[in-house]
Amino acid sequence: MRWSNEMFYILLFNSFAGAIAYGFWMIAKSGMAKKKKLKYVYPMLGIVEAFFIFPVMFVYLKVSTHVPGSHGSYYGTLFLQTPFIYMAECLMAGIWILGMIFYLGNYIKEYWKFKSILKKSFAYELPADVCSEILQELKMKRKITLYQNYAVTSPIVVGWWNKKIIFPVQDYEERELVTILYHELVHIRQHILEMKKIGIFLKLIFWCNPMMNSLLQNIDEWGEIACDRYVCYETAYPYTVKEYYTVAVDGLEQSHIWMPQMVTGFKKKSNFKRRLLQMKNYRKEKEMKFVGGVALSLVLCVLSTTTTFAAAEGFKAGYEKVFDDTKVMVEEKAVEYEEAVEYEESFDMEKYKDYEIVESRNTSNIRANDVGQIKGETGKGMIQASSIYVKKDQSINIVVSVTPSDKTVRVGIVDSNNKIRFVYGKGTITHEFAISASDYYKPVVINDATSTISVNGSYYIN
After folding, report:
1. Could you give the CA distance from residue 89 to residue 92 in angstroms, rounded to a whole number?
2. Could you read off the pLDDT of 250-281 as tens digits, one per residue?
3. What CATH number has the domain spanning 343-461?
4. Ranges in the chain annotated CATH 2.60.120.380
5. Where in this chain does the record put each Peptidase M56 domain (predicted)?
6. Disulfide engineering: 387 pairs with which of 54, 297, 436, 440, CB 3.0-4.6 Å?
7. First CA to last CA across the chain, in angstroms?
8. DSSP helix, strand, coil percent of the chain (3-state; round to 5)
9. Quick one: which of 459, 404, 452 has its CA closest to 430?
């Protein structure tokens, strides 16, 4: 299986696994929000992101379908292809890549527009003790720089390693300044910006997953709620919750500048009402304990993992049905072509020392009616599959498609006695090699010309 095929399956399966984890998170979030137990809602979104990142489903399928062979490893029919499946994968991968390029291009364009605005920022001088006391309380040693910008209408945090807080250009009362600093510094302390960046990266990759917009909205909204809760109930914030939200609502209607999602905004209009409703009637003493939060996170992991495994089994069953159906199409198509003249000669590798050898890795554990792949690209060279054991009176059927279709190649099999039997052909070539002695045989495609060809085909034992 080629790395490109593996990458396609990893992304496809990660999209499924992440969607499953997100579905369970939504159920957990709904129950916790109703009971006003908000502390662990946001951290559990990190588990959801992990299911989009780590190939849980792919690894499960590889391990569960693994069958060792005497000449390598075989990963079951799930990782074999027919021409129909190959074309379907190419079509889906092409659309997927084009979508990623489109979304990435749009994001880069808007981000650079935003960067040009930030270049007009200038240093914001505050009394040293205003910020340092909050930094000391939050046990933050990283240096944070403060700026002002005429185009910014809501305080925001930007930056990768060196974080910057950018304020609108206006005069602040002490209450407003302290509230904003607490909020934005807690954002930095809790790595909320990093969580959002991962979410944006995942959306660029899994743009076709319908849940990604909802996931990003929840990362944004619950990041703000987590920050609100921490400032009001876990710090020495000197004002009331009502005063905290009064500062946030001031100037809310003027917050109109486009901001990329990888920045945080204290006065974001889009989710402010929901933030307020979530914090209404919240009581810290009724919050879930640490043990309960860990237990709930473990339950989310277990449910997501087991459901992902079940979904993998369902995908495997569906894939194998499509594989069996399209394998029959290949077999039926093979009989339409004329039988070519078969040649036999000794196979001396000295004759092929200037030939490029391309390995089309497959299985040595092919059984009757199983289908193996032979594919690759070469100039003057030989594309060869792994050796397979074939019994007397069986046959090896090979069907290959050669591009460009006007290039003549040799398609054949090599036995353990270094004898090669082959036919000449071009375009789509099909041939059945009858086996008169039980032995190991290696399917090969040989290009004797120097011009580059691409081969995509399959073989099976009858």
Report:
1. 5
2. 644 444 444 555 455 554 555 677 777 777 77
3. 2.60.120.380
4. 343-461
5. 92-276
6. 440
7. 23
8. 50, 20, 30
9. 459
Instruction: Give the dihedral of Cα atoms 433, 437, 438, 439; nearest 10 deg.
Output: -70
Give yes or no for a contact between 143 and 164, defined as CB atoms under 8 angstroms apart: no
Helices vs strands, H then E, count in the chain: 11, 18
Three-state SS string over 392-414 comes to CCCEEEEEEEEECCCCCEEEEEE
Residue with tokens 């040009």: 116
Q: Other C-beta atoms within 10 Å of 106: how many?
A: 11
Q: 62 in helix, strand or coil? A: helix
Reference 155, options 133, 127, 134, 176; nearest CA is: 176
What does the alpha-carbon distance between residue 175 and residue 183 come to, in Å, rounded to a whole number?
12
Is the pLDDT confidence value at 31 over 60? yes
Q: What is the pLDDT of residues 219-240, one digit of tens each?
A: 988 988 888 889 888 888 888 8
Handedness of CA 257, 261, 266, 271 (dihedral sign): positive
Reduce the DSSP state of residue 400 to 3 states and report it: strand
**Reported confidence tier of residue 343, pLDDT bands at 50, 70, 90:** confident
360 by Cβ neighbours in 10 Å (0-12 / 13-18 / 19+) ranks as: buried
